[in-house]
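quick one: alpha-L-arabinofuranose bound model?
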Amino acid sequence: MRVLLASLTLISTVLTAPSVVAQKVQLSVDVSKAGTKIDRNIFGQFAEHLGHGIYDGIWVGPDSTIPNTRGIRNDVVAALKELKVPNVRWPGGCFADEYHWRNGIGPQRAVTLNPNWGGVIEPNTFGTHEFMDFLDQIGAEAYVSVNVGSGTPHEAADWLEYMTTAQPTTLAKERAADGRPAPYKVGYLGIGNESWDCGGNMTPEYYLDQMKIYSRFVRNYNPEQQDRQKQMLKIAVGPGGGEPRWTEWTEAIMKAYQQHTWSWDINGLSMHNYTVVKWPPSYTSVGFGETEYAQILKSTLDMDDLITKHSAIMDKYDPEKKVALVVDEWGGWYAPLPGSNPGFLVQQNSLRDAILAALNLNIFARHADRVRGANIAQMINVLQAMILTDKEKMVVTPTYYVFKMYVPFQDSTFVPVTFDVGTYTHADIRLPRVDAIAAKGKDGKLWLEVTNVDPNEPVEIELNLAGITAKSAMGETLTAPKVDSINTFDAPNTVVPKPISAKIQGGKLTLQLEPKSVTVVVVEQ
Ligand code: AHR
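yep, here:
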């Protein structure tokens, strides 16, 4: 009899026990502590004239057999609309400091070169009006980077007058003759790009002298943008890392800002930080294993230290946090795909990139008081892209899905979360096992994101929610069979979100998270 009972117990254990016992994590959220706004602009995109980022990726021309609206791909627009892209930074990057806007307007476009990116022909068929049309189609704001490196304040001032004035000036009449009588809005003005490097190798002092002139004279005249609330925000070039030359750069700009007079101003300081581990980029974007997965994710977490370091400098000169830190280039930068033009920065986008994106977005959210803008590099076909295209084919990447899942966090209110991060260990690499953020959405609901970094072990999250009585939680989770799983034109659904819901166990909500997964749920009361 005893043997029979033991056997029955064994059978029932075998039938009910999960194959791997999930690590348990208590996660506590107190909605009454909701605080800083998570600015939707941290979900910004970056589209440079680089490789197939613009041409083929966005622009196919009105005569293309690929379905388009005034030359802009319909499939790409439809996909991007789902992301509610807040702003797009354009035309570069390094390209911006060699861009002359007059080449990109009017019926006859100058054919120029793109010396930064493969030395290819730049047809200039995608210029100011095409960019604005694209923004209009996807519902995003313009973040225009003006040419400080090889341009002049006069050229940039004219460009802004051409785009924004409602008065019947010669430039406004030219804009109307080019097909746009009404002024455009320009939400953000980038004053140069990496001016310490590809933007002209300037010292902080030289850049500051230039930047003040651009800040003074490059004006936005749009009548609808004259209120303080709607004014164009000017973003100065900031650091590209944590080394002394960049902390000195941030010191110099912010010290000058503290002493600025009525005649110039900035509203943001740019920061660029790629996850690359070593230069030149040599990690592959697909066909890697757990070691490269762990190394890249460990490296990406340096973003937090970098923001903390530069925020501390900014706090010294701007304790009221009037100047935003705008991480307007970030993402994974890997070796170019074999056979591609190395100047085109073509790489695949895997589940690892989805997790990398979630970790970075969470870092930005935790620094929401200072980080009020960020632009992932880059939107289409370049670096850590949302979308890959090949002629008429298009596929959305794992990173795309993370941005889609995070839409409810746009302009939400950050709610602190406490949890034991645990440790995921691979060889000598140690990483926090779990990451999470919570926020009160614009819909008034509590949204929660939890990332399980561990590629081998599931996690069981037990939610302790103070301030609300939760009935359920449901949403989506993104994972895939392997750390380097990708979506391809032939197999576009390898890394796609699937529904998930929290179960009530013992009166508590519990979420079962798969290994290497990103999960977003909304709590229903
Ligand atoms: O995103 C690619 C390049 O990286 C940008 O043009 C430049 O700003 C940065 O160095």
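The chain is about 25% helix and 25% strand.
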